[in-house]
Amino acid sequence: MNARLSEKFRLWRFPGGIHPEQNKSSSTETPIEAGRIPPRLILPLHQHIGEPAEPLFTVGERVLKGQAVARANGYVSAPVHAPTSGTVIAIGDYPVPHPSGMSAPCMVIEPDGEDRWVDHDSVADYRNLDPAALRNIIREAGIVGLGGAGFPTFIKLNPGHNKAIDTLILNGAECEPYITCDDMLMRERAAEVVSGLAIAAHALQARESVIGIEDNKPQALHAMREAARSYPNMRVVEIPTLYPSGDSKLLAKILTGKEVPSNKLSLHVGLTCINVGTTYAVHRAIHHGEPLMSRIVTVTGGAVGAPRNLDALIGTPMDELLAQCATRMDRIERLVMGGSMMGFAMHRADLPLIKTTNCIIAAAAAEVPRPQPVMPCIRCGACSDACPMSLMPQQLYWFAKSKELEKAQKYDLFDCIECGACSYVCPSNIPLVQYFRYAKGDIWTQESEKEKAGIARRRFDARQARVEREKAEKEAKRQQKKAALDMANARERGEAQAQSAMQRAEARRDAAMQEAGKRWGAQPPTAPESSAPDKTASAEPDKNEPAQKND
Amino acid sequence: MRLANLIQLDMPLNTATSPHAKAPITVSTVMLQVALALIPGLIAYVWFFGWGVVINIFIAVVTALIAEGVMLRIRRQPVGMYLADLSAVVTALLLALALPPTLPWEITVTGTLFAIVIAKQLYGGLGYNPFNPAMVGYVVLLISFPREMTVWVPVVSMSEYPLNFLEYASMIFTGKLPAGISIDAITEATPLDSLRIHLGLGSSVADIRATFGIDEETSRLLSVVPIFGMFGGKGWEWVNAGFLIGGLWLIYKRIISWHIPVAVLGALMAISLVFYLFEPARYASPMFHLFSGAAMLGAFFIATDPVTAAASPSGRLLYGAGIGILLYVIRTWGGYPDAVAFAVLMMNMVVPLIDDHFKPRVFGH
Prior knowledge:
Number of domains of chain A: 2
Radius of gyration of chain A: 33 Å
Structural class of chain B: mainly alpha
Strand order of the largest sheet of chain A: 1-14-13-17-15-16
Number of helices of chain B: 20
Oligomer: heterodimer
Strand content of chain B: under 5%
Largest sheet of chain A: 6 strands, mixed
Distance between the termini of chain A: 56 Å
CATH superfamily of the largest domain in chain A: NADH-ubiquinone oxidoreductase 51kDa subunit
CATH class of the largest domain in chain A: Alpha Beta
C-alpha cells in the first residue's frame, strides 16, 4: 500500500545538477564487514559542529566499551564514547581529518581486547517517553549527523516552541560518487534504519516521514519499502539520480516542493532532514542502549584491492581500515575523506575515522583528474547551467578573483552550497568552488575584523568618555569648593556683596582675557564656562556605554 | 609503543581541493565541436557558391593562427596552450564564412588580423574581448572595402561562368579572371541586397519576385539572377538550412544553450511577420528573412559566442531578441546588405547592462 502510494508521489525538480561517474558498484559487491579492533584508537574530542567535548578520564585510566570518555561542553556539543574497553594512553593534539590538515585534541585508547561493555540499558517503549527525554538519550549517546556535517542530532530533533514539523525527511539519496555506506545500510539493516526514523519522528512529533532514495539503489529501495510497510505515515520515494540531490535543501525541494528560504533552516518551512546512518544510530541508542561508537564507512578507490563497507570503530586509524580492504598504499595518488565531489584530500593515511567519515577513497592515479592548465573563463555558462542553486558562478568568479566581495555577496555567494558542480563542468578547468570558499572565508575574516575594530573603537570611546567625565566632575567639585571658600572668606570680611560683584566682574574679565588667549599663554581653563563644554561632550559617550554592554 | 608514529610524517600525500572529479570537457573540445557543427552549412555553401569560401577559410585560419601565436609571444602567454584552444580557428572560420567568396586575399588577411590582434588579443585574449572578434573584423572590412565586400557570386547553377577551384584561387590571390570573362559575368548582388535595392527603387516584392523569377527556368529565360528560392534567398536557403542543422546539433550536445538562437530567430520572425502582414508588397516574408543571408549562422554560431553574449538565461533571451530585431531593422531600413555583424556588435555593447539586471532567481530567494 505504502509502496504503491509512493510510486505516484509527486516530485519536484531543482535547476541544474550533473551526472558524474558514480564509481559505486565495486564497494557494494560484498556485505558490510566488521572493522577490526586496531592496536589503538584515536578519539578526536571535536567530531561535531559546536564546542569540543571535555575529557572525563586521564592518562592511565581504564575505560569500558560504551563509556562516555568525554562529555558535551555546552548546548551545541556532543560527548565521545569509548568504542571498546582499554586504557587511556594519551590525551593531546594529534592530526585529525580536516581540510586544513590540522592537529586537534584527541584521546588515545589502547584496547585491551576484552571488548567489555559498560552497563547499558535500552528503552522499553520510546512512545511512552516525552520527546525531551528521548532527545536527552540521543544527546547522551553522542549522536551527530553522520552525513557529513556532524550537527548534534538532539538539537535537530527539537522543533522548538511554536514550530510544528510537517515532514521528517530521511536522506537516502547518497548522491555523491563512490559513497555507498547508506546504500548498504539500507539494504542490510532497513528495519533498524526505519525504526530509528520512527523514533526521530516521535521526538519531533512530525506529521509524516518521507524517505528519499535515488533510483540507482534499487535494492535499498526494495528493502526500505518492505521495512516501511508496517509504519503508518511513512513513505519511500524513488527520486531520479542527479547530483547533488542529497543536499538537504534540494532533497526537501524534490520531495515536498518547498524551498527553504535563503539564510533559513529547513525548520522554517516545517521540515527536518536526517541521514540514514544517523537514524540507525538512534535506533541502536534507544533499543539497545548503545552510544555512537562505530559507523559504516565505505573504503574504496582504485588503490583498494577489496573495496567494501566496514562497520568500523570510531577512532580507528584509516590506514588500518585500508589495510583490512587490501589497499596498495603505494598506489594511492590521493586519499579523500567523503565523496569525490565534496570530500577533501588528506595529507596522511593514519588519521582516525571520525563520526562524519562516510567514505575513504584511496584513489589511484587514473581516477584523479589530470591536472590541466586553468584557462580564462569563456563565459560559456556551463557552470550556471549546472548550479543547483541558480547562481551565476561565472560572474561570482570575477568578483571573487578581483576581491569585489560586496558584489559577490550581491550575487548571493552565501547561497553557494559548495557542491562543486561548477568546477566539475568548467571547460576552462577553473577551480570555481575553491574561489568561492576563499571569498566566503575572506568575507568572514573581514567581518570579524570589522567587529573586532568596532568593539575596540567603542571601548576607546567609552574610556575617553569616562576620563572626560571624571575630569569634569573633579573640576566641578573643585569649583564648588572654591566658590564655598570664597563665599566664606567674603562673609568673614563682611563685604560679601561688593566682593561677589567684583568677583563677577573679574570672572567676566578673566573669561574675556582667556578668550583673547595669547597673553595668558598655557594657563589651564579654570573658568566654569570652559568646563561646561566638557560636560556636554561627556553626555554623548555616556550613551555609548550601555551599547557596549549589549554586545 | 607505536604512538610515536602518530605525529611523525614520513611522506605527506598529495592533496588537492574538491571536486576530485572532472567532466571530460575543455575549451578545445567546445571550440572543436563548434567548428565541426559548421560543416553542413559549409558543404551547402561550397555546393551553391563554389570553392572560394574554402580558400578564404584557409587564408583566414593560417593568418589567425600566426597572428595569435605572435601576439601571445609578445604578451608572454603560453603560445601552445592558447593555440590549442582553437578559439582563433573558430574566429577565422566565422569571419571567412561571412566574406564574399571572391575577396582578394589581402583583404581577408586584413580582416583576420584586425579580429585577432585588435579585437581579441589587445583586449586581453581569450575570454576578455567585449566584442565578437570575427564581427569586428567583418565590419572593419565592410567599412574599409565596401565595393569588394558587397559583390557576391551567383548560385553555381545559375552562373554564366561558375569558377572552379583553381580559377577561384587565381582570382583571390592574383585578381586574374579566366581569359575573356568579365567580373560582371561572375558576380552578382546577394538576394538580400537586390531586394533592398529594388524595394528602394519602388518595386513591390511581388514585382521583384515576378521579374527575377522563382525558378531557374524563368530566370534563365529572363536572363536575370533569381533572388527567391523555395523558401528563402536562392541558394542561401540551403546554406542557412545547413547552419540550422549544425546549430541544432550544438544545442543537442549542450555546447550552446537554446536561448540565444531561439530569441534571435523568434524576434526576427515576429517582427518580419508583423510588417509582412501589414504590407506584403513592401516587406519580405519571415521565411525569406530566416533563410537568407547570415541569419542562421548569426543565430547559432555568432550571437552565441559566449564571451561576448549575455550570461543568464533571461539575459540571453533579451540579448538574442535584440539581435533579431536589429537584424530586421538594419536589413529593411539600413544601407548594408546584411546586418548580423552590426546587430551582434550593438548588442555586445549592452551585455554588461543586461548581465547586471538579468539574474536567475536564486534558490530560496
